[in-house]
Amino acid sequence: MNINRALAFSSLAVLASSLPAAEPGDENSACSSSWVSYDSAWTAWYDEDHPTTTVLTTEVGYPEFDYSVPYTTLCDGYRRAVTSRATVPTTTYDPPKTFSFQESYPEPEPTCTIAETACTAIISSYSSASTAWANDEASTSPGQPHCTTYRPCDSPEYPGDDYCFLEGNVKTVYYWPVTTQSGDFCTSSGLTVVPEPTSPPNPNTAVIDGQTFVSPTNYVSLGPMEAVLHIRRYRDVPNCGGTSYSGVVVPVTGAMTTKGLDGSRSSLNFEDLNTMKFEDFKAQRRCKNNPCTVIEGFYTPELALPTEVLDLQPQEWKAAGCRGTDVGYVFLDEEFGRRRDGHR
Description:
- By secondary structure, the chain is α+β, with helices and mostly antiparallel strands.
- It contains five helices and 19 strands.
- Mean pLDDT is 75; it is low at 1-25 and 333-344.
């Protein structure tokens, strides 16, 4: 049983009861009641054991690394894998194998919504309960209400004690290929060459996954993205501002920033991705507990949200000076860096 969720549900009924007295047929009151009933039934159901089974004929395992692939060593003295070392093994079961696991709650969630005007009372009670819980560890942990209400990011509810913070991550970086000519790799004396338009004066364009990219601008696609009010003295982290985003593509005109394991910041130079520098490769978070000694194609740096994401909501996020466009909070979670010429 999930104790935290159970505690949250036990207090949710109290929060929902703070709605103004409803006339018969009040849709908001009825919706709140349906959520309370659903939460109570969910908790009771998970107090019991509900095992189920599945039969597998094949199973995909975790990536494995082949250390017998060819390597090359450049003048910096570090080995580089000529081909990808990662393989994903697949296991075939003959006869099929049976696995047991806990069944998921079978009942669907309520589909109704509570209007923002009615939600205000619930949010108010939730905030009060969060404050009480923060000051009294013996109190019941409050549960997140099943409704939302608008909170402007530039209007602190606890003056001087909270700030707007962007929560999100960069999924993919799309960049135009950059090459280095002449010079010496070890002394970084090469000449960076940016591709010229194929049909000047028109810029180059590429269409990937239905999105059109125009040179010479680079882009990032974002995972779930929203703004919250971080309150230092309380444990309440409510959303603020308007729309949340997911999958949106943002043009980036300035330099992007990475963070090393020692906390140092550095600019992301796309020309360095052609012949990866070992200092950049070993600075990845995944190299912390298992030091990387061979440079390979899988590069996932700790990457800052670019400041351009503030332009998604200039009257909310940008005007309020929302924080979060700094490394340490977001990660590139797909293989770096899809080139916009269609190559990886």
